[in-house]
Amino acid sequence: MPVITRFAPSPTGYLHIGGARTALFCWLFAKHHGGQNLLRVEDTDRARSTPESIETILDGLTWLGLDWDNKNYGDKNFYSQYGQRERHAEVARQMVANGTAYYCYATTAELDAMRAEQKEKGLPQRYDGRWRDRDVSEAPKDAKPVIRMKAPLTGETTVVDAVLGSITVQNSQLDDMVLLRADGTPTYMHAVVVDDHDMGITHVIRGDDHMTNTFRQVQIYKAMGWDIPIFAHLPMILGPDGAKLSKRHGAPAVSDYRDRGYLPEAIRNYLLRLCWSHGDDEIISTEQAIEWFDLDGIGKSPARFDFAKLGSVNAHYLKIADDTRLAKLAASFIAKILGADLTAAQMDLFIRAMPDVKTRAQTLVEIADMAAFYFRTTPLVFDEKAQKLLTPEAKQILADLAARLENLPDFTGEAIESTCRALSEEKAVKLGAIAQPLRAALTGSTVSPPIFGVAALLGKTESLNRIRTI
RNA sequence: GUCCCCUUCGUCUAGAGGCCUAGGACAUUACCCUUUCACGGUAGUAACACGGGUUCGAAUCCCGUAGGGGACGCCA
């Protein structure tokens, strides 16, 4: 049987990084088995679902390179849960007909009072089944009922989870949950089961905050006589402090990572290694991940998000990334710094500078910060350390240097270096006494890529211009 | 409150009863390389939550304790 997974976000906000991890695992698992990965938007909560949110989530998935195989649902390119509401209602009515569900006329106020009382008495908060065995003839007039599951009162329900193992709960712990709301729309609990069944999902891979819901969902499968899929519940991703990852930690949304200059392949690699492992392997290409990924490698305990490690993973992917691609990606960050877009000539310079720039950076933002000096105009703004370096003596040396560079026939890094070395010997000073002031003059900073290469890239005219306008 | 799950260096993890003097990666410290900063290289610090069992032998199996997380909606 072919593997079919699904990623099922609710469009009530952005794509959470934890959701992205779930999406990645679903995608990898499907790819590994040559199956399909479907996207289902859980938009049954009409009050909170928004089209903007759907856009954001789709954008996030696309940016991460996680595609889905169901792109033809009428006017939509994903499966909309709300669009299936008639089907959900139909199944709920079937369950009433076969005796595994019933109408409940209890009002919200009534239920609130019931829970308050249970809480006060220290009892478990559960629906007490007050309409479970009452006849419909007792129903109040004009009241719109909900449909509730008629859950077994005795015995136990066992879920065999591919990650957590076999877990059993007493049925007495589970109450009669609502399947269909008074307005005829399905609850999440009901809709997931119907949709997973209808879509032929073989493996339900999701966050383990859904673990305890699974018992109730299994009861619906059983009530309808449907095959139960394989469940795999992923441990949560926590913030650096061990609390649930949220806005408070700074970067909960996938878009935050794009904005901070991380590469999608780095995010994929980092997320993959959170709660999943393949021996000692750390740097794992997506191709390799597809080959290796399986449910066996998933760990059981929650993982904390570590920005330092993400940075190092990103630095690795920066190093092996194509320079033109990086320049294009970093260009928007540079434009923000400069207040203007790069010209074609500047873009060309940026690409040639990239090999020396990218090994010094962990993110595209750092690349942009570090490379901005290439594109600035004189007079440069010197930072504090650079100013300190540019003493009268240093300026004199630079003047001498400028005179010699003027006459260089080939303005290459090697030629510039030889010139500097020759000058350092003549003046009996260390190479640093020349190179550092030169760096300050050309970049405005004491930190930069190798300075002779920088000078060569800047070209003779611009280099001399910068030296002479200090 | 009730139920469910989890627990190896600071962090992510390897570990399937003897291969463990507990390995790798990030972070951190020192040194090397070096025109700066990085990269790279070498070395170091650092963990089996606790208490009982089972066993010739436990990080690994069992029980308990503690700590953490999750679920208990006409939210998803």
Provide structural commentary:
The chain has 470 residues and is mostly helical. Strands 1-2-3 form a 3-stranded parallel β-sheet. A 3-stranded antiparallel β-sheet has the order 4-5-8. The relative contact order is 0.09. The structure holds one RNA strand of 76 nucleotides.
Q: Averaging pLDDT over every residue, what do you get? A: 93
Which percent band covers the strand fraction? Answer: 5-15%
**Annotation field: number of helices:** 19
The main sheet orders its strands as 1-2-3
SSE blueprint and pairings:
Elements: E1 4-7, H1 17-32, E2 36-41, H2 51-64, E3 79-80, H3 85-97, E4 101-104, H4 108-120, E5 146-149, E6 156-161, E7 165-170, E8 178-180, H5 188-198, E9 203-207, H6 211-224, E10 230-234, E11 237-238, H7 254-259, H8 264-272, H9 286-292, E12 303-304, H10 307-320, H11 323-338, H12 344-358, H13 364-371, H14 384-389, H15 392-406, H16 413-427, H17 432-443, H18 451-458, H19 460-468
Parallel strand pairs: 1-2, 2-3, 9-10, 11-12
Antiparallel strand pairs: 4-5, 5-8, 6-7
The structure holds one RNA strand of 76 nucleotides.
What is this entry, summarized?
It is built from 19 helices and 12 strands.
Descriptive labels:
single chain; 470 residues; mainly alpha; 3-stranded parallel beta sheet; 3-stranded antiparallel beta sheet; 19 helices; 12 strands; 10% strand; elongated; RNA-binding
